[in-house]
Amino acid sequence: MATTESCLEIPEAGFSFDNCARNALLDKMGHVAPRFRKTGTTIVGLIFEDGVILGADTRATEDTTVADKNCEKIHYIAPNIYCCGAGTAADTEMTTNMISSNLELHRYTTGRPSRVCTANRMLKQYLYGYQGHISAALVLGGVDCNGPHLYSIHPHGSTDKLPYVTMGSGSLAAMSVFESRYKPNMKKADAMLLVKNAVEAGIFNDLGSGSNVDLCIIDRKQKVEYLRTYFEANMKGKRQGDYSFSPGTTAVISSKVRQISFDILSEEVQEVEGMEVS
Amino acid sequence: MSIMSYNGGACIAMKGRNCIAIASDLRFGIQGQTVGMDFEKIFPMNDHLYLGLTGLASDILTVSERLEFHIKLYELRENRKISPKTFLSVLSNLLYEKRFGPYFIEPVIAGIDPKTRQPFIASCDLIGCPMEPEDFVVTGTCATQLYGMCEALWKPDMQPDELFECCSQALLNAVDRDAGSGWGAVVHIIEVGKVTTRRLKARMD
Prior knowledge:
A: disordered N terminus, B: alpha+beta, five-stranded antiparallel beta sheet, 12 strands, 33% strand
C-alpha cells in the first residue's frame, strides 16, 4: 500500500506550465505553432416580454477550414442560466464548464437558485485574472428572482448589461438586424424571428459563421426551451453518384483478427426438473 | 516550418453501422527525411477503445503513455472499462491543463461503448476542445486532403467490409498527395466482439 501511494502523484489543480520553456525555444527556432480551433461565430442575446432568448450559429473553424459543421455554442451554466461562447473553442467550453460546476457548489452552499449576476461576476473575475489570454467572449443570459438578465462578457473581463447583445466575428451583421428591428417587450414569436434573422445575417455574411441556427429560450417561469438546430439554414447537397468500392479493392499485406471476450453482466441459474424415463 | 509537420503523419476515424474504423499512416520523418516506416500512430487504450495521435512524435509518445496511465488507474479504481465519452473528457482535460504550453498533438478517439454497444468517434484540437461528429474525424499534415476524400466517400450505416474499403481508400489517396505522410498504412476495424487489424499495400514514396 505504501508503495502505490508514493507513486500516485496527485497533480495540482489548474494550468500547468511545464511545456512553456520548450515551446518558446521551438518558436525561436522558427517552428510555427498551430492555430487553435476558434468558433468564428455569431452569438446573440435578446430580452423579450417573457424572458431572454439566446441564439448562435454552429460553425467551428481551424484557421480557414471548417472543423465542425454542427457544434454546440450555447452552454449550460445553471438550470435557469445559459451562455453562448465565441473565441477559442476550448476556452469557452472549459470556462463555462468550470463556472457551471462552481455555481452548482454555490447553490448547495446558499440553498438558493443561482442569479445571473453571480455567474457574470464569476466569469469576469476569472477572465480578468488571466488578462485576456483566455480568449472567451461570452453572451450570458438567464432568468432569476429579479427577472431576465443579459450580459456580454469580453475576454479581458469587461461586461455590459444590455437588453440586446451580439458577439463574435458576425456580431456586426447581427447587430445591424437588431438595431433596425428591436423594440422593448417584444412578443415571443417576434423575438424568436428577430434572433433567427440576426444569426442568419451572421451566417450568410460572415465567413467565420455558418451552418445552422440554435436557439435557447428562458422564460420568466424559469422554463428552458433548448432548440438545437432550430433552423437548418444550410443543408448538405445530395450526392449524385455512388462512390463505394467493392470489397477487395484495397490491397492488404497482412490481416489479424482478435476476438474480444464479452463482459459477463449477469448469470442466472435455472433449475430444471429431472426427466422421468420410464 | 510548422511544428505539426515536423514529423508528419495522418490519422482518420469513421463511424459505420455498429462498427468503427480507425486508420493511420506509418511514416516517421525528421523534417524532409523519412527515418521510419513502421511508426503506428494508433494506440489501443483497452479492447474496445483506440486512440490515434498525429503531430510531434515525442508528444505523441508522451501523451499516449500518460493517458494509458490514467486509464489503467481508472480501471483499477472503478473495476470497470472506461466509456469512450469519459475517455474523451479525460483527454480533453489533460490537454487543456497545458493550455499555455500545449502538447503539439491532435488526437482522434474511436471506440465502442461497453454498456450501450454504440460506436463513438471524437477528436480534439491541441488544447482539448472536444468534437463529436456523426460521420468521420481526420487529423494530420494532410487533413485538408482527408476532409475532401471523406466528404466524397463516406455514407451513413456502412457494414464493416464497406467501411474498411471506404476508410482505406480515403486515407491512401489523401496521403499520396502529401509529402509528409504515407509509407504504409494500418487500419483497425472495431466491431462488438472483434477487432480486425490490416496493414495496407501503399506507395512507398
